[in-house]
Amino acid sequence: MKKITAFFLILVMMSLSIISYSASPQISVYVLGGKLDFKDAAPFIENGRTLVPFRAIAEALGANVEWDSATKTVTITKQYAANASESVTDTTYNGNSASDETKIVKIVIGSNKALINEIETTLDVPAKISNSRTYVPLRFVSEALEMGVNWDSATKKIVIDKGNITIAFDKNKAEVGDIVKANVEVNNIPGFTGFQVNIKYDPDVLQPIDPTTNKPYTTTTLPEDGTILLNEKFSPVKMPAGNDLDKGIINYGMTYMNMASYKNSMKAESTGTIGVISFKVLKKQQTNLKFEDAKTMTKSKDGTMLYNWDGQALSNYNVVEPQPLN
């Protein structure tokens, strides 16, 4: 009787284990809103990193792929629009000069080194061959192609999408004399390291002021600090490019100078506030802020220039216009 009882206990434990395993959610990947079908080659996790079939993820991201069996090298190539392709060395920033119009990523099976436009970078986990299929690290490939990656550990859901930059008021209604704060925000920008923005406002309706002194901006006044690009270990530098207050223009930038240490930390500050502008309301009427192209930013994307920790300008992000005030 005891043997029968023990046998049934083992069966129950095994069935519970099977139920638990089968109920465990599988990894799902969504690219630009659509679910990616990996068919007969499912993604898997190794050393905390998700690996996926290289052709499926690259083509979903709009890239061309090549496989060199002799050298076991995966080459992923993506062409971008010409705007925002200026390298950092063409601006006030320091960095590597490289064209961002074409992104070429090379990964060798079994190696923890990869090349992005001939710039060497280190992988957390190397690409590998499993069940006769070639797998690459999903986050690395996605971010190399300038896409943001979000991981939900509870559901094992991965969402890959373009990052964005926008401006958000701290309130939607304000009276004459009120102070409103405009937060300049980036979201899901891979390897985010620096920026320059040109912001247009209506000087008849809004007046930018320094909240510590309550005095109006001058041509060199910088917005208040945001929440990112502030780590002293990586030498943050602010750069006022020159405000034109008569025309309602605020132009400023910021970057980490110690890009190598920042990149080696593998902790990109991809989401957060990059500046806060306080405005005094002069007239109660509907108004808005917007990013606007400037002559001094000849290859900007709608008045914005974002850079990654390789010192290269990014182009594969959205510029989102804010909601109006009043």
Head-to-tail CA distance between termini = 80 Å
Alpha-beta content class: mainly beta
Structurally, the number of domains stands at 2
- Oligomer kind: single chain
**N-to-C SSE string, H for helix and E for strand:** HEEEEHEEEEEEEHEEEEEEEEEHEEEE
Mean pLDDT: 86
Number of helices: 4
CATH class of the largest domain: Mainly Beta
Looking at the structure, the CATH topology of the largest domain is Immunoglobulin-like
Unreliable sequence segments: 1-24, 83-100
What does this structure look like?
With about 325 residues, the chain is mostly beta strands. It has 2 domains: about 130 residues, 2-Layer Sandwich (Copper Amine Oxidase, Chain A, domain 1); about 160 residues, Immunoglobulin-like, CATH 2.60.40. The protein is built from 4 helices and 24 strands. Strands 18-17-21-15-14-24 form a 6-stranded mixed β-sheet, with no helix packed on it. A 5-stranded antiparallel β-sheet has the order 5-6-7-8-9, with helices on one face. The radius of gyration is 24 Å and the shape is elongated. The termini are far apart.
Topology, please?
Elements (H helix, E strand, L loop, with lengths): L1 H22 L4 E4 L2 E2 L8 E3 L2 E5 H7 L3 E5 L4 E7 L22 E7 L4 E4 L2 E4 L5 E3 L2 E5 H7 L3 E5 L4 E5 L1 E7 L9 E9 L4 E9 L5 E5 L4 E2 L19 E5 L8 E8 L2 H6 L7 E10 L8 E2 L12 E5 L8 E3 L7
Key terms for this structure?
five-stranded antiparallel beta sheet; Immunoglobulin-like; 24 strands; 326 residues; Copper Amine Oxidase, Chain A, domain 1; 13% helix; 2 domains; mainly beta; six-stranded mixed beta sheet; disordered N terminus
